[in-house]
Amino acid sequence: MTLVELMVGLVLALIVVWIAGSLYVTNKQVTRVNDSLSRLQENGRFAMHVLEDDLRMAGFRGICGNSVTPINVLASTAYPYQFNVGVAGFHGTGASWSPALDASISGLSPAPLPDRDVVTVRRFDAAPVALTAAMATPTDNLQVAPSISLAAGDLLLVADCTAAAIFQVTSYGGGVIGHSTGAGVPGNSSTNLGRAFGPDASVYRLVTRTYYIAPSARKAGSNSLWANSTPSYQGVVQPEELAEGVEQLLLLYGEDTDGDRAANRYVTAENVTTWANVVSVRLQTLLATTATNMTTSPQPYTFNGSTSTPTDRRLRTPVASVITLRNRAL
Predict the structure, then answer these.
(1) Dihedral (C-alpha) 196, 175, 61, 165: value to the nearest 10 degrees?
(2) Is residue 277 part of a domain?
(3) Domain total for the chain?
(4) Which domain range does residue 78 map to?
(5) How far apart are the C-alpha atoms of 117 and 212, rounded to whole Å?
(6) CB 318 within 8 Å of CB 302
(7) 9-25 tens-digit pLDDT
(8) Burial class (CB in 10 A: 0-12, 13-18, 19+), 320
(9) In a domain, 191, yes or no
(10) SS3 (DSSP) at 168
């Protein structure tokens, strides 16, 4: 083999190696992008599912519906225990919110990121449980099947077709639900539930859940959808990171202004006349890949009618949905 032949062979070998390397790098990037997009779609579906489910059931008052206002004997009127307000929102503009965030929300860790909406939903947290015996008096304990999983500290709604009451469980055992005063947080101001409920009544476990956007604890440099639940059932540490890659949250509230149970206008939280008139919610989220360098240059995106160009090279997509609050529109 001559020197010229050797040099030609080396050049051809280098070309083959360069082509193979380019194909490998390209395929690796394509696989990386596809994996990130799959994760983005998965996170987006999950985030929308939990938000839609909670908003849809906001303000549940038992089988009597909105025709009856429950008696609330909880000893506190603090924000987490205001079950007369099924849904309440806060519109983020700049570094503040309108209305102003309650201290129980602004003091969370991690705290809500500015310029993003915050929403609180109050609803039942588990399947209804029927009473197995009638209360002798309105102050009597409630009886359910001994196999039912409840605990002291749970917040319950008891309701039948004509009445409802909200209280805290102060003792539980053998299916007997106690609701005395002077124990627990927030505790009960009275043991009188307004009537002696019978076997046609059911109890529902209640929760106040606030959704907001904050930095992710799992993926540094990205944001996530967080939820803070009061009480915290199943021993889950609060706040809880639900879905990674959720950058923005915006809600428009459909307010019924003429009593026909249909939205006449959609407004941000500070423009809602009364939360009792909100019958639907227009939910918008902005999702982003948690991994960077997905594109060769920053990709513009459109959210809430405005087009922006980011400084990074993540992929983004907006997702929107309109949710009817079943307990308001039926």
Answers:
(1) 40
(2) yes
(3) 1
(4) 39-125+206-329
(5) 7
(6) yes
(7) 788 888 888 887 777 66
(8) middle
(9) no
(10) strand
Structure tokens at 272: 């809602």
Helix, strand, or coil (residue 40): helix
Task: Quote the distance between the C-alpha of residue 76 and its chain's center.
Answer: 24
Q: Supply 187's token pair.
A: 């505790």
pTM of the model: 0.89
Q: What does the alpha-carbon distance between residue 52 and residue 284 come to, in Å, rounded to a whole number?
A: 11
CA–CA gap between residue 325 and residue 54 (Å, rounded): 9
Q: Which two tokens stand for residue 215?
A: 């930095």
Task: Give the position of tokens 């700049």.
Answer: 94
CA 233, CA 57: separation in Å to the nearest integer? 18
In 3D space, the residue among 186, 185, 232, 235 whose CA is nearest the CA of residue 210 turns out to be 232
pLDDT in tens, 202-214: 999 999 999 999 9
Cis peptide leading into 110, omega within 30 of 0? yes
Span 187-246, pLDDT tens digits: 999 999 999 999 999 999 999 999 999 999 998 889 999 999 999 887 788 999 999 999
Give CA separation, 166 vs 20, 68, 194, 195, in Å: 69, 12, 10, 12
Residue 137, domain member (yes or no): no
Query: Residue 45 and residue 29: Cα distance in Å, rounded?
Result: 24
The answer to whether residue 255 is domain-embedded is yes
